Amino acid sequence: MNWISNNLCEFLIMAGLVLLVIEVVVLGFSTFVLFFVGLAALLAGGLMAIGAIPDSTLSAFYSVGVLTALLAMLLWRPLKSMQGKVEVKKVTSDLVGHSFILNETVSMTQNPAYRYSGIDWHLSSEQELPAGTLVEVTGVAVGKFIVQAKES
User: Fold this and answer.
1) Which residue, 84, 118, 134, sits at the end of a domain?
2) What's the CATH code of the domain at 145?
3) Does one domain contain both 15 and 78?
4) What is the pLDDT of residues 9-28, one digit of tens each?
């Protein structure tokens, strides 16, 4: 404990770095609490190192608390909007490209089942495909194959 009070600015900087690493690496930047506290500890340690705030435990606690609140107020909205931007991309599957011959007619109103890999998949298509047609899976949804006629 004596080392911490003798080297308070270095301790704050190290604690801030550790908190930032935990937030980014372990939590995946999903919560901002450790980010704000870690950044505040870094700033407080830097301000203490240049002599802007006194080198005491009480001023360290106050400055980290005040800086955490200020950083949270300033950065919450931009970070939250950055976190909300999610790329929507179509999930690919190994089932896409699977070819087979239809046993029953498939259309927008008829969705027969096709057994593949121990699962009954309902077939759907935007066009009518008669029984005996060679089809290829072009999309997969929950319990459903989206198929179209395969060109030979």
Assistant:
1) 84
2) 2.40.50.140
3) yes
4) 999 999 999 999 999 898 88
Structural contact between residues 150 and 125, judged by C-beta atoms closer than 8 angstroms: no
Asked if residues 97 and 136 have their Cβ atoms less than 8 Å apart, the reply is yes
Q: Give the confidence band of 1 by pLDDT, cuts at 50, 70, 90.
A: low
Predicted structure pTM score: 0.55
CB atoms within 10 A of CB 129: 20
Q: Which residues contact 73 (CB under 8 A, 6 or more apart)?
A: none
**Structural domain includes residue 65:** yes
DSSP string, 7-27: THHHHHHHHHHHHHHIIIIIS
What letters, b where the CB count within 10 A reaches 16 and e where it falls short, cover 21-40?
eebeeeeeeeebebbbbbbb
In a domain, 92, yes or no: no
Are 33 and 106 members of one domain?
Answer: no
What is the C-alpha separation between 111 and 10, in angstroms, rounded?
Answer: 68
